[in-house]
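Practice problem: predict the structure.
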Amino acid sequence: MLKGRLFAFRRSLILLVVSAIGVLPAFALEPAKYPEPPDTVAFKVEKNGESIPVTLRQLEKLGLYSVSTPSPFEKGQLKFQGVLFRDVLKLIGLDGEGSVVLRAQDDYVQTIPKEDWTEGPLLLATRQDGQLLTRRTQGPTRLIYPLEDHPAFDTPVRKPRWIWLIKTIAPPN
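Answer:
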Protein backbone atom coordinates (compact mmCIF):
# COMPACT_ATOMS: atom_id res chain seq x y z
CA MET A 1 0.00 0.00 0.00
CA LEU A 2 2.87 2.35 0.80
CA LYS A 3 4.45 1.56 -2.58
CA GLY A 4 1.17 2.47 -4.30
CA ARG A 5 0.98 5.81 -2.52
CA LEU A 6 4.63 6.53 -3.24
CA PHE A 7 4.06 5.75 -6.92
CA ALA A 8 0.99 8.00 -7.01
CA PHE A 9 2.94 10.80 -5.30
CA ARG A 10 5.83 10.50 -7.79
CA ARG A 11 3.44 10.47 -10.72
CA SER A 12 1.65 13.57 -9.39
CA LEU A 13 4.96 15.32 -8.87
CA ILE A 14 6.11 14.53 -12.41
CA LEU A 15 2.83 15.78 -13.87
CA LEU A 16 3.11 18.95 -11.81
CA VAL A 17 6.65 19.60 -13.03
CA VAL A 18 5.74 18.87 -16.64
CA SER A 19 2.72 21.19 -16.41
CA ALA A 20 4.77 23.92 -14.76
CA ILE A 21 7.29 24.03 -17.59
CA GLY A 22 4.56 23.94 -20.20
CA VAL A 23 5.69 20.81 -21.99
CA LEU A 24 2.99 18.22 -22.24
CA PRO A 25 3.51 15.11 -24.31
CA ALA A 26 0.91 14.35 -26.94
CA PHE A 27 -0.57 11.31 -25.18
CA ALA A 28 -2.66 9.17 -27.51
CA LEU A 29 -1.57 11.11 -30.56
CA GLU A 30 0.58 9.15 -32.94
CA PRO A 31 2.99 10.69 -35.45
CA ALA A 32 1.66 10.46 -39.01
CA LYS A 33 3.16 11.00 -42.47
CA TYR A 34 1.36 11.96 -45.68
CA PRO A 35 2.36 13.55 -48.98
CA GLU A 36 2.87 17.30 -48.86
CA PRO A 37 -0.43 19.17 -49.23
CA PRO A 38 -1.08 21.97 -51.70
CA ASP A 39 -0.32 25.56 -50.74
CA THR A 40 -4.02 26.19 -50.05
CA VAL A 41 -4.93 28.82 -47.46
CA ALA A 42 -6.13 27.03 -44.32
CA PHE A 43 -7.17 30.15 -42.37
CA LYS A 44 -6.06 33.71 -41.74
CA VAL A 45 -4.48 35.17 -38.62
CA GLU A 46 -6.07 38.48 -37.65
CA LYS A 47 -3.77 40.56 -35.48
CA ASN A 48 -2.46 44.12 -35.30
CA GLY A 49 -4.90 45.14 -38.03
CA GLU A 50 -3.44 42.64 -40.48
CA SER A 51 -4.86 39.50 -42.06
CA ILE A 52 -2.10 36.95 -42.63
CA PRO A 53 -2.86 33.75 -44.56
CA VAL A 54 -1.58 30.42 -43.21
CA THR A 55 -1.42 27.52 -45.67
CA LEU A 56 -1.95 23.81 -45.25
CA ARG A 57 1.65 23.29 -46.31
CA GLN A 58 2.92 25.58 -43.53
CA LEU A 59 0.77 23.78 -40.99
CA GLU A 60 1.69 20.24 -41.95
CA LYS A 61 5.41 21.09 -41.88
CA LEU A 62 4.96 21.37 -38.10
CA GLY A 63 4.54 17.59 -37.99
CA LEU A 64 1.40 15.52 -38.28
CA TYR A 65 -0.27 13.49 -35.56
CA SER A 66 -3.19 11.11 -35.71
CA VAL A 67 -5.94 10.56 -33.14
CA SER A 68 -9.12 8.49 -32.97
CA THR A 69 -11.91 10.04 -30.96
CA PRO A 70 -15.67 10.25 -30.80
CA SER A 71 -17.16 13.58 -31.82
CA PRO A 72 -19.87 15.39 -29.90
CA PHE A 73 -21.64 16.01 -33.22
CA GLU A 74 -21.03 12.93 -35.39
CA LYS A 75 -21.57 9.23 -34.82
CA GLY A 76 -18.85 6.68 -34.26
CA GLN A 77 -15.14 6.79 -33.69
CA LEU A 78 -13.45 9.26 -36.06
CA LYS A 79 -9.80 9.32 -37.09
CA PHE A 80 -8.21 12.72 -37.66
CA GLN A 81 -4.71 13.81 -38.66
CA GLY A 82 -3.31 17.26 -38.08
CA VAL A 83 -0.95 19.40 -36.06
CA LEU A 84 -0.83 20.22 -32.37
CA PHE A 85 -2.81 23.38 -31.75
CA ARG A 86 -0.13 24.69 -29.38
CA ASP A 87 2.43 24.39 -32.22
CA VAL A 88 0.12 26.33 -34.55
CA LEU A 89 -0.19 29.10 -31.98
CA LYS A 90 3.61 29.27 -31.72
CA LEU A 91 3.88 29.46 -35.50
CA ILE A 92 1.43 32.37 -35.71
CA GLY A 93 2.77 34.17 -32.63
CA LEU A 94 -0.27 33.74 -30.37
CA ASP A 95 1.09 31.16 -27.92
CA GLY A 96 1.61 33.83 -25.25
CA GLU A 97 -2.06 34.84 -25.23
CA GLY A 98 -4.41 33.81 -22.42
CA SER A 99 -6.94 32.73 -25.06
CA VAL A 100 -7.52 32.86 -28.80
CA VAL A 101 -10.67 33.45 -30.82
CA LEU A 102 -11.57 31.11 -33.68
CA ARG A 103 -14.18 32.20 -36.22
CA ALA A 104 -15.75 29.80 -38.70
CA GLN A 105 -16.91 30.55 -42.25
CA ASP A 106 -20.50 30.84 -40.95
CA ASP A 107 -19.34 33.33 -38.25
CA TYR A 108 -19.66 30.79 -35.43
CA VAL A 109 -17.15 32.01 -32.83
CA GLN A 110 -15.44 30.21 -29.97
CA THR A 111 -12.85 31.49 -27.52
CA ILE A 112 -10.30 28.81 -26.67
CA PRO A 113 -8.63 29.42 -23.29
CA LYS A 114 -4.93 28.68 -22.88
CA GLU A 115 -5.67 25.95 -20.33
CA ASP A 116 -7.26 23.90 -23.13
CA TRP A 117 -4.10 23.77 -25.26
CA THR A 118 -1.80 23.36 -22.25
CA GLU A 119 -3.84 20.70 -20.39
CA GLY A 120 -3.88 18.32 -23.32
CA PRO A 121 -3.04 17.86 -26.96
CA LEU A 122 -5.67 19.70 -28.98
CA LEU A 123 -5.38 18.84 -32.65
CA LEU A 124 -5.89 21.26 -35.50
CA ALA A 125 -7.00 18.63 -38.00
CA THR A 126 -6.16 19.01 -41.66
CA ARG A 127 -7.16 15.46 -42.61
CA GLN A 128 -9.69 12.80 -41.78
CA ASP A 129 -8.91 9.17 -42.56
CA GLY A 130 -5.78 10.41 -44.36
CA GLN A 131 -7.71 12.62 -46.81
CA LEU A 132 -7.34 16.40 -46.76
CA LEU A 133 -10.37 18.09 -45.24
CA THR A 134 -12.43 20.08 -47.72
CA ARG A 135 -15.29 22.46 -47.25
CA ARG A 136 -17.62 19.49 -47.75
CA THR A 137 -15.85 17.61 -44.91
CA GLN A 138 -15.80 20.65 -42.63
CA GLY A 139 -12.29 21.79 -43.54
CA PRO A 140 -9.75 22.79 -44.45
CA THR A 141 -9.17 22.80 -40.68
CA ARG A 142 -11.07 21.63 -37.60
CA LEU A 143 -10.21 21.94 -33.92
CA ILE A 144 -10.38 18.49 -32.30
CA TYR A 145 -10.51 17.70 -28.59
CA PRO A 146 -9.41 14.07 -27.99
CA LEU A 147 -12.39 13.22 -25.80
CA GLU A 148 -11.72 9.56 -25.17
CA ASP A 149 -8.07 9.93 -24.18
CA HIS A 150 -8.62 13.12 -22.18
CA PRO A 151 -11.94 12.76 -20.33
CA ALA A 152 -11.53 16.24 -18.82
CA PHE A 153 -12.28 17.58 -22.33
CA ASP A 154 -15.60 15.71 -22.47
CA THR A 155 -17.71 18.44 -20.85
CA PRO A 156 -20.68 20.56 -21.93
CA VAL A 157 -18.43 23.64 -21.75
CA ARG A 158 -15.69 22.27 -24.00
CA LYS A 159 -17.74 20.36 -26.57
CA PRO A 160 -18.95 23.55 -28.32
CA ARG A 161 -15.29 24.50 -28.78
CA TRP A 162 -15.00 21.89 -31.53
CA ILE A 163 -15.00 24.28 -34.44
CA TRP A 164 -14.70 23.56 -38.13
CA LEU A 165 -14.49 25.52 -41.38
CA ILE A 166 -12.08 27.81 -39.52
CA LYS A 167 -11.79 31.19 -41.23
CA THR A 168 -9.68 33.16 -38.74
CA ILE A 169 -7.67 32.83 -35.55
CA ALA A 170 -7.13 36.00 -33.55
CA PRO A 171 -6.10 37.21 -30.11
CA PRO A 172 -8.95 38.28 -27.83
CA ASN A 173 -10.10 41.91 -28.14
